[in-house]
Amino acid sequence: MPHTGTSEAKSGAPPSGALPASGGSFVRRDKLMRIEEDVQRLWDKTRPYEVDVCSLRRPRFVDSEPCNGSSVKNKFFCSFPYPYMNGLLHLGHGFTLCKAEFLARYYRLRGKNVLWPFALHCTGMPILACADRLKREIEAKKKEHELQEDKKEDQQEEGGSSDPTKFSSAKSKLVAKTGGLKSQWEIMAALGVPQDEIARFADANYWLDYFPPRCKKNLIRLGVAVDWRRSFITTDRNPFYSAFVRWQFMKLMLIMFLRICLCPLLPSPCGWLRLTLYVTMFIFFPCPCGISFSTFKILQAAGKISFGTRPTVISRRELQACADHDRLSGEGIGPQEYTLIKMRIKTEQMDASHAPHAEFKAAWEKHSSTNEGQSRQIFLVAATLRPETMYGQTNCYVLPEGDAPPLTPKPSKSTFSLADVSGFACMGRSALNMAYQASGGADELPTPHCLHRVSGQALLGLPLAAPLASYDTVFALPMQTISLEKGTGVVTSVPTDSPDDFTTLEYIRSKIEYFNKLYGIKEEWVLPFQPVEIIEVPGLGRQAAPTLCAQLGVSGPKDTQRLQQAKEEAYRRGFYEGVMTVGPFAGRKVQEAKALVREQLLQEGSACVYYEPEKKVVARSGDECVVGLLPQWFISYGEAEWRQQVEDYISGEDFSAFSPQAQHQFAFVLSWLKEWACSRSYGLGTFLPWTVNTDNPVLIESLSDSTIYMAYYTVAYLIQGGDMYGQSVGPLGLKPEDLTEAFFDYIFLLSDTPPEGSAVSVDNLNLLRSEFAYWYPLDLRVSGKDLIFNHLTFCLYCHTAVWPKQQELWPRAFACNGMVLVDSEKMSKSTGNFLTIEESIEKFSADATRIAFADAGDSLDDANFQRETANAAITRLYLLEGLVADFVAGKIELRDGPLSAADELFQNEIGLCVQSAAAAYEAMQNREALKAAFYELTIKRDQYKQLVGDEKMHRDMLRMWIEAQAITLCPIAPHICEYLWSCLLKKENLVVDAAWPQLTYDSALHREYGPLQQRVLSVLQRVPLVQGLQGQVEAPSDFMQIVKDAPELEDLDKNQKKEALAFASYQMRDELKACGRSALELRLPFSEKALLEAHRRFLEVSLELTCQLPQSFLVYTLEFRSSDDPSPLDSTNCRTLAKPGKPSIFFTSV
């Protein structure tokens, strides 16, 4: 690849560390990549990451009895949420999975048996949705092609293609019709799929053939220490994993955490009949759900079966629930429940002389009669969260420029039972939500029937009968700030308690002539309607909104900042402090009255229950989602006893979230998480076991088949034999039908009795059981913090459900991180900073990419992958390899013989780096680990080289440094370290199997105390030390008072006492932390002055005092003095700044 221009990362130029020496090749990067290929071949040959227990390959176990499932096990089992296979893995995946990768490699070096498996997720809607979208695009292209056959000659002359399965890069009409979204064809091309292969992705199965192997290949190139024999894909394409998922769901059913939301056997909503009828009919007829009679009896006896519908965010294209993983945007968004206030339009009072009203009335009269001859009513409907304020209505508001199609939902016997004889006027978006909430059955999801489309302006001035209002008639008025993205486009107006309503009404009052000319607003629609007091708020009176607007100086509807502040204050204080002053609930707190007023409105038929998404949600199929009332199965997360069990566990000592922020996030999610829809009718996956043999089998959704699959990792290679698709016979010769409920119960420790009549031998069952018993529980799961809100919490719930009395099998730790930025910007293809793992390896090499991952960050905040870091890593790794190669080849002048003081100091510093790296790895502080294991070790070597000067480095010390470097950096940059270890140093074993260096570090700094410091130390030795949170010794909070009151210091003058107190503070805060109790010893193990003299040469070189000027005009000298021995040349009193181990420096010229 030729290099042109600068190496600016954003321009797509090559890394600076890989700049070509000649011939247009990038020597440094290319050499690293060749090394990586050689090392990967070595690992592929030796298979160091394949670890078994009591099975076909036995690792070197430290445990005395590795197969007995003992709680004392020298093992580490980590995992990463299997990524979704609708594309290639990007830097976000790589950054998070490397959290587990670095720790797994570190624990291997510390002698642990490490299991680090990796599977690939294919369950859910996205793959099938993309395949179907591509299929539609191809069909549309074919039709377009057929219509343009007569232009074929012109196209050929212009060089155009007539192949209907080929797409140009320009946006087609199809793209325009999908709201500006990229076509699926273009997306596939952007993923690197060859043009002649894209059409094959119209078959969803081809996605499963294409992406999983390619992702695995890229991860192997990245160098992950994964046991790939345990890899698998999900969906029924893998019959073994499907059997596991079906077993899991039968466990949830039997433990009564799964409930029926709607059973197709009984359309009647009569709850008191359901159990009796179900059992009676079950005796004579097969169960439509496919549940065995014995299973049903267990469920029925517990009284845990119920049915009904529940509000769910759904995709209208797929006619099914759209969970987080099925969405293009809007993850974490759920249904918002409103009270839909029905304000009847008084058609009999409409002003016939007002042209918009006359037009509206004429249009309505065409549809105002039902088939039975009844007269329909029509309502303006407003969605509100504050039904208790309806007593204060003075008018309603509509958006003049909005469209409001009157809607007649399909007749049903649901909550909308009045809708079949009425019409609703509202925005089309809210009409869609209403229609799907009026559904009568799983196979009947109707679309709304638009009778007539009118503008919002035509609704202005309509006379309305508003429920609970003190005015018999109120009118519709204009409001410019109504959102088209929320609610129905109609807003009730309560000016006493809503600053928005108050300021808009006052604005219209003050400019009535303007609004009359603009919209035809009449005075009688506005002026007679004074605010109605309904709630008293302490400190704000009975007109909270006008009071707050006056206090905050709100100037009008456009004063958005102050208005927002007033709204928040009015709602908060009104809801929590307010007391009702009107209606049957007068005297009650607003908090109590809200539900009571709502129930009253619903019972009177003056309101309905209405749901819509909290914010906009777009499905991967491209359609905007709505909320529908769907019949479905769901897992009852949030059930009180179950939730308490999980809350108790995460707050105990057996679980770690690694940070208080993550711990609080888990607690927060547990506080609100409720039922989760786990069934789907569209997508890929595994069918619910009790629906398999029915006319309408139901799929398990993607966040529900992925909660305890870590257990399957432990036995996957014995069952599938390394075939991720489960199509081959594994080492034990098992078939999918052999994996029965009793089979899984036994191997996963839920039963102590081998299943009778099993096709699997007892020996093989025990082999599988031993694998699970040894490796479980999961020691670490790494993830992005977004999965706290679903997957990670589900994982905790389901482990406690499947193993309710075996807490020792529940997950031990979850480590979460933020999103990944690239050069401090969000990853985006449009800005050119979106990188897949494959692209990053090609650009920087695998080890340089991994170093940039380690440096990117370690907290819940967003991490920052920097190209500059990856670029610099190329150079550093290249130079490291060159240094070791020169050492092995004898090209570096070295000495042998006894060790000098400089050698011993260097050895001590290597030990410090090794200890620092170990502590950082164990705390998952990878940036600190990289600093200690790479950057600081390099600095120590350079300083050592300076320190010895002309004496040369010691051969043994440099070898020690190289070996320490190879081992401590191995978790982060394993390829180069393996090459140094195995290929250059010619070690017999692999570096990935090496032992962590056992080097010591003497933490006592080289200090020397004077008389004053010794007096202070004698006082400090009497101070009672306390134990800190991490077990270290600390000074008590009152230690300075003890020093001040010490009789030994009473004779000191003001300056001496000031110096003594400063020294005491330094020793008890800094030195005690660094050195422990040795910081308080009266004498030090070394003479600081003697130490400096021993390393005079190093200091002269470091301070550049060795280069004398010509003609000897200037000669540099270096002198060491005690702080008690002032120099006659020092007039600055600089010596008083010196502290033990931290000398001060004074420069002078004569």
TrEMBL record:
Among its keywords, does the record have Protein biosynthesis?
A: yes
The annotated regions of Basic and acidic residues compositional bias extend over 143-154
Q: Which residues cross the membrane?
A: none
Q: What is this protein called?
A: leucine--tRNA ligase
GO process annotations (BP): leucyl-tRNA aminoacylation
Every Aminoacyl-tRNA synthetase class Ia domain range? 72-151
Amino acid composition bias (Polar residues), ranges on this chain: 162-171
